[in-house]
Amino acid sequence: MTDQEMLEESARVIGVVGDKIWIETESRSGCSQCASSNCTTSVVAKLFGVQKNKLLIDNDLEAKPGDQVVIGVPGRLIAKASVLAYLLPLILMLAITLMGSALGINDGMQSLLALAGLSIGLLLVRWYTNRDISTPGYGPQLLKVVGNGYKHVVFPKHMRS
């Protein structure tokens, strides 16, 4: 791990496969910590509920199923991916539409060209992000183990068989 700024997220280990672990994180809306229940964002978040994301990452810290862990993604990577994901499709959509306009293509066809440019941009973003997915430091990294596995439960005498 380098000394760069990491965006951190907590997760739970759900499985071990060789030297890798499956982790599960929960996607929350941007205002999930807000006490207000009458804003539009909280209403939409309640409609879709909490989504669970599963990721396979390197197990550098020997985490076990049930462990609570903290994972991190380099902040510069998030910024780069955001700019790429938003700007490239938009720029291609506008460039192809402007080329169609310069060639005298009618409005209906320009709309189709805009859709084609947007689609090409999204495909390029997908290709670019998928080609380097195995590069070290590109994806989430295991930063620390917070809690140790499943807790040993001792049942009261009246519950034992």
From TrEMBL:
The keyword Cytoplasm does not apply. The chain crosses the membrane at residues 83-105, 111-129. Pfam families: RseC_MucC. Keywords: Membrane, Transmembrane, Transmembrane helix. InterPro entries: RseC, SigmaE_reg_RseC_MucC. This is Fis family transcriptional regulator. It comes from Candidatus Thiodiazotropha endoloripes.
